Amino acid sequence: MADSLRLPKYSIGVGDRFAHQAKAQLQACIQGAQAGVEVIPVWNKSNREHNIIGSEPSETRCAADRAIAELKWSKPYFLDADHINLNTVERFLKPCDFFTIDVADLIGKPADPSKVNDFVKRHSELTGTIEIPGIERSFESDHAFVHKVANKYLAAIEEAGRIYRHIEQRKGTGNFIAEVSMDETDSPQTSAELLIILAAIADDRIPIQTIAPKFTGRFNKGVDYVGDVNKFSEEFANDIAVIGHAVERYGLASNLKLSVHSGSDKFSIYDPIHRALRRFDAGVHLKTAGTTWLEELIGLAEAGGAGLALAKEIYREALSHCDELTVPYASVIDIERASLPSPDAVNTWSSEHFTSAIRHDQANPAYNSSMRQLLHVGFKVAAKLGPRYLQLLRETEPVIAKNVTGNLFDRHIRPVFLGSASGTPALS
Predict the structure, then answer these.
(1) CA angle 323, 324, 327 (to 5 degrees)
(2) Which of 167, 187, 191, 216 has the fewest CB atoms within 10 Å, measured from its CB?
(3) Cβ of 286: how many Cβ atoms within 10 Å?
(4) Coil vs helix vs strand at 379
(5) Residue pLDDT, tens place only, 260-318
(6) Domain boundaries along the sequence of the chain
(7) Rounded CA separation 220/348 (Å)
(8) Closest Cα to residue 96, out of 22, 172, 44, 40?
(9) How much is the pTM?
(10) pLDDT band at residue 421, thresholds of 50, 70 and 90?
(11) Which residues are CB-neighbours of 402 under 8 A, at least 6 positions away?
């Protein structure tokens, strides 16, 4: 359809736990446009986060719409129903126009044997020596490999199709962006597996515009990438090449691109991502979330007075409920308990000491990765404070906004889309 919603080439998922930073987040995209690159904001907030905070997706929509109007943003923007399934999608249907369909839990569930056999027969092109433009080494595949991968992923893809069609029935064809997410699983998908997955998605006629595979290495919340950067670089570039090949071979959306989940603060892989995007003239969706909540906390501490006192209180409560807060995120955090300072020690800290501990500056000897990760998942503590927390957000808004905008532009948009970290030119 000519008037179907289409996700532009470069987009950034911006999370806003308490729906107060949409304007500051959008300002970072405006700065990107002024610097020569169009990066589209996609506000995202998961069902779990809404439940913890006691909010509704409609509130996120209102905050985004208000920021768009106040800053006179004339380019596209979207609201993402983040990591939804059939049990959670309902509350997102009206306000959202971007749906991250999460089927990771079904990966590995054995598929219907007859459907697996039919898939293998239908896709003889996936066996033998597979050469893909942009990938130096060819893939060697056989029927056994294709059968194994299909058996592992077909059930998940069928569920993605069911969820997509449920949304389509309610919102209409072409009225939303679809992403399939497979990142929250145990092992990364190889580029050869990704090609088979895309063939199956095309068979099921799911018109995805982004796909979120699980990459090699660890994508812990709010801290840098942990893993072999060279291996990630090769894998990321190969996945882009596979997508380009699948778009031509299977008729997938021409703007289909990779989505990097838990992408905030992965500073060591931003330059490889930028270089791959330039090499293939490809798009990307970089998904950030809790980094904005942390910038709120940093802004509160930086403001001093009641803001600093509240930041210290939030840390004290987070530490006392460490297990409760961290268990749901166990697969995406690595906290060294011995590295967490005592609340009594933190109570003596100045604003500068507190912000230095949790601001993601690895060159600063005061930076504490464990403390940052604990506070990253500790937004539940702030949610329980309710009006008291929100009132201080309003009172310290100028300081917080400066941190939120600066973090998104200087630490995310600039290195990924402008390439300033390596001196390479901006994407176009």
Answers:
(1) 70
(2) 187
(3) 24
(4) helix
(5) 999 999 999 999 999 999 999 999 999 998 899 999 999 999 999 999 999 999 999 99
(6) 10-288+407-418, 295-395
(7) 29
(8) 44
(9) 0.96
(10) low
(11) 24, 299
Q: What is the CA radius of gyration of the chain?
A: 22
Is residue 207 exposed (0-12), middle (13-18) or buried (19+ Cβ within 10 Å)?
middle
Distance CA 232, CA 213 (A): 12
What pLDDT is stored for residue 422 in this prediction? 47
- Give, in degrees to the nearest 5, the angle at Cα 42 between 163 and 404: 140
Instruction: Please tell me the distance from the alpha carbon of residue 73 to that of residue 77, in angstroms, as a whole number.
Output: 9
Report the CATH architecture of 10-288+407-418: Alpha-Beta Barrel (3.20)
**Gap between the Cα atoms of 79 and 424, Å rounded:** 31
- State the residue for tokens 């961290």: 326
| CA angle (35 as vertex; 29, 41 as ends), nearest 5 | 15
SS3 352: helix
Cite the DSSP H helix spans in 142-289.
Answer: 143-171, 191-203, 229-250, 267-280
Listed in order, strand segments (DSSP E) in 341-403 are: none
The tokens of 388 are what? 């008291």
User: Which residue matches tokens 């504490």?
Assistant: 368
Please state, in angstroms and rounded to a whole number, the distance separating the CA atoms of residues 33 and 169. Answer: 36
